Amino acid sequence: MTLGSPPTRFTPDDLLRLEEDDDHLYELVDGKLVEKEMSSLANKTAARIITVLNTFCLQHNSGDVYAEQSFQCFPHDPDQIRRPDVSLIVFDRLKSVPEEGHIRIAPDLAIEVISPNDKIYIFERKLADYRKAGIPLVWEVNPKFRFVRIHRLDRKADRLEETDAITAEPVLVGFSVLVSELLPPGETLPSSE
């Protein structure tokens, strides 16, 4: 470590330039690059969620679904960039979405798929950032333990098991599927009874 040299602080524009030349995806938190990594189970889960949401949105002309899109919509830190694993913006807000670069409006739904090596404090920081950005609905999807926890702005959270129906109210009116439809096929974990 070199003493006396200031730490490098990256900007949102730096992130765009870096990703043009790099195969990796990053978030920008406190001016530092944080590489976005997902397990194969998390990737499969995100793909299923995208398929289910996209099918509904196309049938109902409800909005657009994004995979690992970069969002620059955090009033507490205007240079911060987050990339939910899956996100959704409803139809009447799509005119604010640029064709390139970071999206500067908050998504209506942000979905984080938990990988086995994810640390809880990192997820909790993301959740706090999502609340500060005013994202009305956040799904925490845990494919290993086969549940979804729904977080709302009022800090209420509901845990749904794979046999429960999940909705996206108030974001997607009429959307409802079993949690199991969002998860890759797998063995159900034994109950603790």
Question: Could you walk me through the main structural features you see in this protein, from its secondary elements to its overall organization?
Answer:
The structure is a single chain. With 193 residues, the protein is an alpha+beta fold. The chain has helices at residues 12-20, 40-60, 120-132, and strands at residues 26-29, 32-35, 63-67, 86-90, 109-113, 137-142, 147-152, 157-161, 165-168, 172-178. The strands form three sheets. The protein has a six-stranded mixed β-sheet, sandwiched between helices. Helix 3 links the parallel strand 5 and strand 6 (137-142). The chain is globular. The mean pLDDT is 91.
Summarize the structure.
This protein is of the alpha+beta class.
Strand and helix map with partners:
Layout (H helix, E strand, L loop, with lengths): L11 H9 L5 E4 L2 E4 L4 H21 L2 E5 L18 E5 L18 E5 L6 H13 L4 E6 L4 E6 L4 E5 L3 E4 L3 E7 L15
Parallel strand pairs: 5-6
Antiparallel strand pairs: 1-2, 3-4, 4-5, 6-7, 7-8, 9-10
